[in-house]
Design brief:
binds nicotinamide-adenine-dinucleotide; seven-stranded mixed beta sheet; six-stranded mixed beta sheet; 2 domains; alpha/beta; 15 helices; Ald_DH_N; Aldehyde Dehydrogenase, Chain A, domain 2; oxidoreductase
């Protein structure tokens, strides 16, 4: 049985006039489970119009009412998140517990946005000049577009839409066409939470849908997350049209292990962050930088742990039997396997080759087991490119400076981690590396919701990171009101004075 996955506009499903449909597969079986509408230009207009119409009233709804709806959404999400997690596992392939984890991290942003009344408070200065008061407010922007990647179909949209909606904007979410069902489920949850029709909309599709949002004069801002080439394109196209834009791109995150670190802790972290969600995380560790003389021992400990991992259909992990699922599509699986071949050819040492994996799942699944390469050098393709799969590369270095130089020479600057028991070295590392998010003895340092998420260099185009106070600033614009009210007991005019006040 395949299902049809449509758009959502004005509080209800909308099929539109799609010029094309795309197959949606279950990566653990390889079977087509649905087909998703790919928006045409008129469909984009229809969905944006629904959001535009809703903005005229939503921006004027009281903060108290907006907050109540957010609290209802949070309660519903919290009580029904296992339904959403099951949808994610069935289309993305990540194991069920991991899908639940991404929802919980997204829910933190909903909880942060429940406090929007406090976050939108402006300042007030009485008697800034004689009889003149000044106050500031933050106003919503209008219709905002959110374009998200396949790897976090719930969490990444939730980095943005709770804050956008709480601040009085209306939203058009364009999810990845690879796992589009989560967005529709979320839209229905908003309806149940009492959000007025048209405030949250879903536009399914690919490039036509994205270009439609970028070109529409009715879309005021774009929040994009995806690969670096598309992030750069979105940033350039949106900013050329005067839109506010934040575009988060790809990553190659390094984890440095210094001599004296707890090697057991480091090995656990490398495996968890390297192979969790089959390496399809923008904060995955893909390069392990081992400072000699500890590399031999560390590689042995990592390899021992990898051999205990169970690869299979993530839907089976309710009995806690599976650690890592398949890759998202066959094309992506083959691309990652191609990197493994490239590493081998370039002379890296394959300690564990995931192409030989025996998965607990159907033969048609897009399986690729955890792969560990040792003696990787910076000139190799597997070091230079973002692989976005379960491939961990060990680079051996002989000094701390060499480790930092590697990180700073990389085109990406999303995250980096250091494992050490030396507080001074950790502190220096946090200052020295040119990345946006740093972990000390923590491999995936995704900031909590009240801080902001974002990388440096080619991992983020624009200057505003996601969620936290930067998110509130992104989805609002400042207004300053300077006012004079004549004291009724004085009743005098200001007099004529043509000079600059
Ligand atoms: P992607 O760039 O292929 O797709 C992202 C979005 O852009 C999707 O909605 C897709 O439909 C759309 N898109 C794809 N090609 C397009 C084109 N040519 N023109 C216009 N729109 C297009 O990324 P993906 O494969 O879905 O996700 C994986 C990538 O996302 C990785 O590079 C990963 O590092 C990155 N990512 C980054 C972060 C971060 O916070 N920096 C978080 C998650 C994922």
């Amino acid at each position: 049985m395949t299902k049809e996955i449509t758009h959502w506009a004005g509080g209800t499903e909308f099929t539109g006039t799609p010029e094309l449909w795309a197959d949606v597969t279950n990566p653990a079986t390889g079977r087509v489970t649905g087909r998703v509408a790919l928006a045409s230009e008129p469909d984009v207009q229809f969905v944006v119009d629904a959001a535009k119409k809703a903005f005229t009233t939503w921006a004027g709804v009281s903060l108290a009412r907006r907050t109540q709806i957010l609290f209802s959404f949070r309660e519903l999400l919290n009580s029904r998140k296992s339904e959403l997690a099951a949808l994610i596992t069935a289309e993305h392939g990540k194991v069920f517990s991991d899908a639940l984890g991404e929802i919980s991290r997204g829910q933190e942003v909903v909880e942060f946005a429940c406090g929007i009344a406090h976050l939108l408070r402006g300042g007030h200065s009485e008697n800034a000049s004689t009889g003149v008061d000044v106050h500031s407010t933050r106003a919503p922007l209008g219709v905002v577009g959110i374009i998200s990647p396949f790897n976090f179909p719930a969490m990444v949209p939730m980095w943005f839409f709770p804050i956008a909606i709480a601040a009085g904007n209306t939203v058009v979410l364009k999810p990845s066409e690879k796992d589009p069902s989560a967005a529709l489920w979320i839209a229905d949850l908003w309806r149940e939470a009492g959000l007025p029709d048209g405030v949250f909309n879903v536009l399914q599709g690919g490039k036509t849908a994205v270009d439609g949002l970028l070109h529409s004069p009715d879309v005021a801002a774009i929040s994009f997350v995806g690969s670096t080439p598309v992030a750069q394109y979105v940033y350039e196209e949106a900013s050329r049209r005067g839109k506010r834009v934040q575009a988060l791109g790809g990553a190659k995150n390094h984890m440095v292990v210094l001599p004296g670190a707890d090697l057991g802790l480091a090995a656990d972290a490398a495996v968890n962050a390297g192979y969790g969600s089959a390496g399809e995380r923008c904060m995955a560790i893909s390069v392990l930088v081992a400072l000699e003389p500890i590399a031999d021992e560390l590689v042995v400990q990592i390899a021992e742990r990898i051999r205990t991992l169970r690869i299979g259909d993530g839907r089976r992990d309710s009995a806690n039997t599976i650690d890592m699922g398949p890759l998202v599509t066959k094309a992506h699986r083959d691309r990652v396997a191609g990197f493994v071949t490239s590493g081998e050819r370039a002379g890296a040492e394959p300690v564990i080759d995931g192409r030989d994996v025996q998965a607990h799942g159907e033969e048609g699944g897009f399986w690729l087991g955890p792969t560990l390469f040792d003696h990787v050098t910076p000139d190799m393709e597997i070091y230079r490119e973002e692989i976005f799969g379960p491939v961990l590369c060990v680079v051996r270095v002989s000094s701390y400076d060499e480790a930092v130089a590697l990180i700073n020479a990389n085109q990406y600057g999303n995250g980096a981690a250091i494992f050490t028991n030396d507080g001074g070295a950790a502190r220096r590392f946090a200052n020295d590396v040119h990345v946006g998010m740093i972990g000390v003895n923590i491999p995936i340092p995704v900031p909590v919701a009240y801080y902001s998420f974002g990388g440096w260099k080619r991992s983020l185009f624009g200057d505003t990171h996601a969620h936290g106070t930067e998110g509130v600033h992104f989805f609002t614009r400042a207004k300053v009101v300077t006012s004079r009210w004549i004291d009724p007991s004085v009743r005098s005019g200001g007099g004529l004075e043509l000079g600059f006040p």
